[in-house]
């Protein structure tokens, strides 16, 4: 049994009032190899061609998972970072909107989508939509932490893999 939660710091009112921020940096520092192995262990890699990581903590986790499993890595970035040709998806945040972007993908492939924390699920839903529009079929969702009291991702019909659930 892993004891990852002992290395997660809960920081109240960051980055704004009312949010309890889950700081994963102590866990990455102390147990990085185990974290990556654990996140990889529940996924059926025979169904996966590439790993898609969401900027920026999804890059740290997703790139290491891709390397461990010998898969390619595709970055999904915040607006304005990737050169054309790009495909974009806007989504609504608590205040205003945000945009995720990817380089246009030509060849259909199956992917696992990786981020650090699943909170309300707005980011992940937009990321899933963007993948599907970009010929990338999402087979599984992989997070380090699922704040499952904040989202209804069970209804999405896709497996959500997360070693830490709150
Ligand atoms: P959401 O779209 O609400 O699911 O938020 C997901 C994104 O916001 C992820 O990329 C997380 O990195 C970040 N995030 C949201 N809530 C938290 C939290 N309580 N602690 C740490 N990161 C969070």
Q: Can you characterise this structure?
A:
- The chain is of the alpha/beta class and 166 residues long.
- It has a single domain (44-165), classed as Rossmann fold.
- The chain is 25% helix and 36% strand.
- It has helices at residues 25-41, 57-69, 122-133, and strands at 9-12, 20-23, 50-54, 72-78, 86-92, 97-103, 109-118, 136-146, 160-161, 164-165.
- The strands form 2 sheets. Strands 3, 4, 5, 6, 7, 8, 9 and 10 form an 8-stranded mixed beta sheet that branches.
- Helix 2 (57-69) links the parallel strand 3 (50-54) and strand 4 (72-78).
- The longest helix is centred in the first third of the chain and has 17 residues, at 25-41.
- It is globular.
- The two termini are 17 Å apart.
- Bound molecules: adenosine monophosphate.
- Adenosine monophosphate binds next to strand 2, strand 7 and helix 3.
CATH level 3 topology: Rossmann fold
Radius of gyration: 15 Å
How many strands appear in the DSSP assignment?
A: 10
Report the order of strands and helices: EEHEHEEEEHEEE
Number of helices: 3
**Regions with pLDDT < 50 over 5+ consecutive residues?**
none
- Categorize the overall geometry: globular
Task: Characterize the biggest β-sheet.
Answer: 8 strands, mixed
Give every kind of bound small molecule, once each: adenosine monophosphate
Fraction in helix = 25-40%
CATH class: Alpha Beta
Whole-number average pLDDT? Answer: 96
**What is the straight-line distance between the termini?**
17 Å
Structural class: alpha/beta
The quaternary state of the protein chains shown equals single chain
